[in-house]
Structure formats: structure tokens, C-alpha cells
Design brief:
324 residues; alpha+beta; four-stranded antiparallel beta sheet; three-stranded antiparallel beta sheet; 9 strands; 51% helix; elongated
Length: 324
């Protein structure tokens, strides 16, 4: 979960002090100014309070409240810089971009609930998740734009595409798992005659109790993510089909509900971002550094000092007062 860790890991780590940089240029009540955008001290404190309301976050991050405030302020400044960059490049973040990022986090953590729990424990409360996910989508879109001009061969793209085919070829499927072929054939005849009976029969007969509770629904199944026999069958039957297949787990009565495929051409921006992951991160950092220099970043000395090379707020040598 790279983006949350980038935001959260610094809270418990001491950072080296550097001289104050243009600290006197913040407006009254501002924690920082990024160009003409004002990040208010009240907003920052509200963020800190909301994050530390979670008991796990309090235990992990609350011992250094000032350090955690610097982490959040650094994040807010990064958000402002990235937003300025995507505006300059006329990049639009669509609802599908946001949904894709949410799915990435869910896949990494195991479930939506686990994502929410891990985020809250790391200092991102539920109220802040939508903006955090949107920011991550903006970062990814900007990285894709930055690497778009880098040279790549079709062979490299095809290889990366096949290596990550589960991200680009998925089916929505349901199944009823039973032990005997005769029962599977009997159930197949029933669901073909009355497709609406599938969920009811899954709840009654399926030995896969987890999916049975959902009427046999397996959700989105990525190519290559299931046993070979099942994988081959579901990706070789069209949406709307019903059939049986045998695997080491038993006999499956399967319904392929729909299929979503992203072509190599459509996936190329994402593939280039993956191929040039380290380059993309470096390009994004360089772009943020240049934007910060162009529009100016000024941090209230009460909260620390801006370190432009690391794009972060660090502890000041002689802090004016504690951020509370």
C-alpha cells in the first residue's frame, strides 16, 4: 500500500532540522501557503484531531503530535502541488480513476473493511479517505502523463501485459460447488430452465459456504487467480452461459455473468507506468519540486520548516511554539 505508507510512515520518524525557509511569509492563521492556496492552521488541527480519534492511531502516532502534524501538513502541501500540476496539464480525474485506486487498495489489504481499518490506524480517518483516494488517483494520472513520452517496445508492453493479465481480464462469475457429477448435472438443468433459481440453489447445495451465502456469487475473478480447470472454463465461455466444470475441489455449476477486458492499447499508459515505476516516482518528485519552486511554498514556523529537496515539513531549529 505504497501511498498510505508514504504519508504515514514519517510520523514516528525524527527528521533532521534545517534552517527556516521564508517562514515569515505565511498569513495570519495559516499553517502554510502554497502559491496562492492557504492551508489554515484550524484545518490542520482538525485533521490531527480526527486522525488521532482512532485508538490505534493514537497509540502509534499520538506520542509525537507535532511530528504527526508535520506529516499531515507535508501531505496537504503535496496535494496542492499535484493539483496545480494536473491543472497545468489539463488532466481530469474521472470517477473510474478513483474506483480503480480504491480497488487497488482493497486488493492490497484484502477487503474494503480492512482498507478502512488500516488507513484509520495509520492516521487516515474515514472522513479523509475520499480525498486521499482522489489524491492517489491524481498522482497516478500525473505519473502516467510524465512517462508517456519515454520510449518502450511493443515486446516490453506485451510481456508486462501478460505478466499482469489478471488486472486486465476479469469475469464476474457465480458457482455452486458439489461433490458429485450427477448432482451438478441435475442442478445445471434446473438453472438453465430457471436462471432465477441459481442463488437459491447455491445457498442450499453449495459446499463453498462463503460464496453460498452470497447466492454463489464469486465477484470479479481475475484471469490466472483460480485453479487451472476453473480458470480455463470461465474464460472460455461467454457471458450469460451456464456449464459444469470439474476441479480438485469438486464439481462446479458455473454462471458467467459478465466479462471485463482491457486491451493492450487501452492498458498501455498503465503498463508504461508499471515498467517505469522508479522513473515515474522520480519524475513526479522532480515535477513537484519544480512546481514548489515556481509558485512558492511557505510554512508557518510554528509548524516547522519547508525542505524543498525532500518535499516535506521538518522540525525547525528554533520552533516558535508547539502546534498543540
Amino acid at each position: 500500500m505504497p501511498r498510505p505508507r508514504k504519508l504515514l510512515a514519517g510520523a514516528a520518524v525524527a527528521v533532521a532540522a534545517v534552517p527556516l525557509l521564508a517562514a515569515c511569509h505565511t498569513s495570519p492563521g495559516a499553517a502554510a501557503l502554497v502559491g496562492d492556496q492557504r492551508i489554515s492552521a484550524g484545518h490542520l488541527q482538525d485533521q490531527v484531531n480526527a486522525a488521532l480519534a482512532d485508538k490505534q492511531a493514537q497509540a502509534q502516532l499520538g506520542s509525537d503530535r507535532a511530528g504527526f502534524a508535520r506529516v499531515l501538513l507535508s501531505h496537504d502541501i503535496s496535494v496542492a502541488l499535484v493539483n496545480a500540476l494536473i491543472r497545468d496539464r489539463h488532466i481530469t480525474i474521472s470517477p473510474s480513476d478513483v474506483a480503480n485506486v480504491t480497488n487497488q487498495f482493497v486488493q492490497q489489504t484484502g477487503s474494503l473493511a480492512a482498507f478502512h481499518q488500516q488507513a484509520a490506524a495509520g492516521g487516515i480517518p474515514a472522513s479523509a479517505l475520499p480525498s486521499f483516494v482522489h489524491f492517489t488517483a491524481a498522482q497516478q494520472a500525473l505519473e502516467q502523463r510524465l512517462v508517456a513520452g519515454l520510449p518502450v517496445t511493443q515486446q516490453q508492453l506485451r510481456s508486462e501485459y501478460q505478466k499482469n493479465i489478471g488486472n486486465f481480464d476479469q469475469v464476474h462469475a457465480a458457482h455452486i460447488l458439489v461433490k458429485h457429477k450427477a448432482l451438478a448435472q441435475h442442478l445445471l438443468r434446473q438453472v438453465k430452465q430457471d436462471p432465477s433459481s441459481f442463488a437459491r440453489l447455491a445457498k442450499r447445495y453449495s459446499t463453498d459456504k462463503q460464496s453460498a451465502a452470497q447466492g454463489g456469487d464469486l465477484g470479479q475473478v481475475a484471469r490466472g487467480s483460480t485453479v487451472t480447470a476453473f480458470d480455463h472454463a470461465v474464460f472460455n465461455h461467454p457471458p450469460g452461459s451456464y456449464f459444469i466444470v470439474h476441479s480438485q475441489f469438486g464439481w462446479h455449476v458455473v454462471h458467467v455473468i459478465s466479462r471485463h477486458t482491457v486491451s493492450l492499447t487501452q492498458a498501455t499508459p498503465q503498463l508504461k507506468q508499471s515498467l517505469f515505476a522508479s522513473r515515474a516516482a522520480d519524475l513526479l518528485t522532480s515535477a513537484e519540486q519544480a512546481e514548489a519552486k515556481r509558485i512558492g511554498v511557505h510554512v508557518n514556523p510554528r509548524y516547522g520548516a519547508w525542505q524543498p529537496t525532500k518535499l516535506t515539513v521538518v522540525a525547525a531549529r528554533n520552533p516558535v511554539s508547539s502546534p498543540g
